[in-house]
Amino acid sequence: MFGSLIVDIKHLRRVFGQFATGVTVIVGLDSRGEKSAFTATSFNTVSLEPPLAVFSVSKKGQICSHLLQCETFIVNVLAEHQADLSDLFGRLAAPEDRVQALHDMEHEWGARVPDALAAMRCVPFLTQDIGNHMLFVVRVVEAVFEEGHKPLVFFSSRYQAIQGLIVPECPDVEKIS
Ligand SMILES: Cc1cc2nc3c(=O)[nH]c(=O)nc-3n(C[C@H](O)[C@H](O)[C@H](O)COP(=O)(O)O)c2cc1C
Asked: Which residue range or ranges hold the Flavin reductase like domain (predicted)?
């Protein structure tokens, strides 16, 4: 359906890894209040009007089937000091540690990472089964950010920090759509 694989997967992973991203922890909440959380670097923005964002989830794990039942997603953009949290929800971790971390996230939205760079409360807009992932397009209904924090960056399979500015000011940033 998608044609033959012309790029070696290991090589492609390294090439994709050259695209630096922020790091998010996304919490899904279903109607019974059940939560699941996972680390995602696939988060990206889609549209301002309407306010849409996207992330993709591997269909392999259990998390995907739960997320398909969720009516709310809390996207937490991690700050520089939160690599441990990214690992907790992104790599093999003791289930009790994840339960404790989710407990620490209790918030009127349902869950929120304390001290994150930004957080968005989202609702489902569209899902698309694609390749070995499920694509979730979500509508942002509430959004906040913390002034002065620096982002956690993921580049070349490693956590990195932003070192400094290349261009001191971007004068027309408001005009970029
Ligand atoms: C930095 C980082 C980014 C990740 N990004 C994604 C992603 O965008 N989509 C995805 O399905 N999994 C991603 N993962 C893996 C999931 O977070 C992980 O498989 C999920 O938490 C399930 O964990 P488990 O298999 O131990 O239960 C990422 C992991 C890390 C460490």
From this structure: 16-161
What does pLDDT average to over the chain? 93
b/e sequence 108-147, b meaning 16+ C-beta within 10 Å: ebbbbbeebbbbbbbebbeeeeeeebbebbbbbeeeeeee
Is the pTM for the entire model greater than 0.90?
yes
- Residue 162 placed within a domain: no
Kindly list the strands in the beta sheet with 152-155, ordered across the sheet, starting from the edge strand earlier in the chain: 21-22, 152-155, 158-161
Q: Which domain holds residue 67?
A: 37-47+54-144
Give the nearest ligand 1 atom to 37 CA: 21
- Predicted local confidence at residue 126, as pLDDT: 98
Q: How far is the CA of 168 from the centre of ligand 1 (A)?
A: 34
Ligand 1 atom showing the smallest separation from residue 56 Cα? 9
Distance 149 CA to ligand 1 centre (A): 23
In a domain, 170, yes or no: no
Closest ligand 1 atom, CA of 43?
8
We report the CATH number of the domain holding residue 127 as: 2.30.110.10
47-83 per-position pLDDT tens digit: 999 999 999 999 998 899 999 999 999 999 999 999 9
